[in-house]
Specification:
By secondary structure, the chain is an alpha+beta fold. The chain is built from 4 helices and 11 strands; from the N terminus they run H-E-H-H-E-E-E-E-E-E-E-E-E-E-H. Strand 10 and strand 11 form a beta hairpin. The termini are far apart.
């Protein structure tokens, strides 16, 4: 009987250790006790462009929102290109003015990627899981899904560039802070042809302005292309009665760009 006591004590110790590990995993450091009400479907109010207004100069917000909040969400901000990329972008704009279509990959149903999908005109559903240690963005546009990991992991050192890159983050109180790297260089910021390199880094800060308005501050840095960070603000309105619908680009891909020339494939059939 006496010999069984140490075994019983050992079992208790093991149980206590297992409980402490489980408790430590459940109580992730930095996760707020009460997660902000981010979950739901959100409508982008700020338009699809950054360096020009894309809402027709109309403020879609209800009354009661401060003028300063309105101003920063609907103020164009030019890309801080260095001399080389500024000249390249001007050439793109000049060609477009002459009627040459911009070779926008999304016209061929290629994913817009991060950060462009963040300000797409279609709704996004935000899902919090694992006790706030994972955030999933389900975008209606191109049926893209982004996953952000808030479990303390770092970016892998051998990232293969992808459209959405690799996103990690953490909570600062009620603000969600995200960091994305490993992005492909063949995507654009908008359909106006703004380009970037494979060194692009996208940092996001999401916070609720009120229960039905969500703000995202997006900071883009690219040492190969920009002379300074490019910062934009996006505003989203909760839409509790909306659903994320199917978006199948292939079924509606009537126009494609081949060798810089737009072709209507439907008319050619």
């Amino acid at each position: 009987m006496a010999a069984s006591v140490p075994c019983f004590s050992t079992a208790l110790a093991i149980c206590a250790l297992a409980f402490s590990v489980t408790t430590a995993q459940a109580a992730a450091p930095g996760v707020p006790a009460n997660l902000p009400a981010f979950e739901g479907i959100w409508e982008n109010l700020s338009g699809i462009h950054i360096d020009r207004l894309s809402t027709g100069g109309v403020n879609p917000l209800s009354t009661g929102t401060s003028d300063s909040t309105v101003a920063r969400h609907f103020r164009p901000v030019a890309a801080p290109y260095n001399a080389v990329y500024a000249a390249e972008y001007e050439n793109v704009r000049a060609s477009a003015a002459r009627g040459q279509p911009i070779n926008d990959p999304t016209a061929r149903c290629i994913w817009p990627g991060v950060p462009r999908v963040i300000w797409s005109p279609y709704p996004v559903e935000i899902i919090l899981s694992e006790g706030g240690k994972r955030v999933t963005f389900v975008h209606e546009y191109m049926s893209q899904v982004r996953r952000a990991y808030l479990d303390g992991r770092e970016h892998p050192s051998d990232l293969e560039p992808s459209y959405n890159g690799h996103t990690i983050g953490h909570w600062e109180g009620q603000t969600l802070v995200l960091d994305t790297v490993g992005l492909r260089e063949d995507t654009m910021f908008t359909n106006l042809g703004q380009m970037h390199s494979d060194a692009l880094r996208v940092q996001e800060r999401w916070r609720l302005i009120d229960e039905d308005l969500l703000e995202a501050q997006i900071t883009m840095t690219d040492p190969k292309v920009f002379t300074a960070p490019w910062v934009t603000y996006r505003l989203y309105r909760r839409q509790p009665t909306w659903d994320i619908m199917d978006y199948v680009c292939e079924e509606n891909n009537r126009e494609v760009i081949v060798d810089g020339v737009t072709r209507n494939v439907s008319a050619e059939r």
